[in-house]
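Troubleshooting log. The previous structure file for this entry was overwritten by mistake, so regenerating from the original sequence record. Sequence copied from the archived sheet and checked twice against the printout by T.R.
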Amino acid sequence: QVQLVESGGGLVQAGGSLRLSCAPSGSIGSINTMGWYRQAPGKQRELVASTTTGGSTNYADSVKGRFTISRDIAKNTVYLQMNSLKPEDTAVYYCNVRGPFNRYNYWGQGTQVTVSS
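Regenerated output below.
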C-alpha cells in the first residue's frame, strides 16, 4: 500500500513562509499529476496547486504570485513553497498523486498550516 509522506507544516506569522514536501513511501510507477489541496474548518477541500509530468502547473487564484509548486521527478517528490502567507491560508494541506488516466489516486494524511495575524 502506497502512502504519501508529507512534511513542512506548522505555525507562522502573517507574511512568513513555509515549504511543504510530499513523497510516496514506496514504488508507485508512473505519475501523471502531483498537487496540493487544502481544507479549512467548515469549508470544502480545494485545489491549491498542481503540476503534471509534462511540466504544466495550475494554481488557485488566491495563491497566484505567492505559492510555487515544484517537483523533483527523480525523487518523486512535490514541493509547495508558500510565501507571503495570510491568515486565510490557514488549513490542513493534503498532498495528492494521480496516475495516468486516473489509474490511481492517492492522498496524504494532511499537514496543518496555521498563519497568525
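The two ends are 40 Å apart (CA to CA). Archived copy saved in two places this time.
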